[in-house]
Amino acid sequence: PVVGILSQAMANVLSAEQQIQAITGLPSDVASIQAQSVALIDKITPEVDELQKILLSYGETAQRQLSLAESQLASGDPLELVLSQLKELQADSLNMKRTIDSLLDLIMRSANEIASFVNPLATIQSQLRSQTVLLQEEMSNARSREDAIHKRYLYLLALGPFGLPGLATALGLYLKWKSEADNLEAQVNAANLELSRLDLMLSATNQLIVHFSDLKNKLSGMQNTIGFLATDVAEIITDTEQGGVRSVIEIHIQATLGQV
Question: In angstroms, rounded to a whole number, what is the distance separating the alpha carbons of residues 142 and 177?
Answer without folding.
Answer: 6
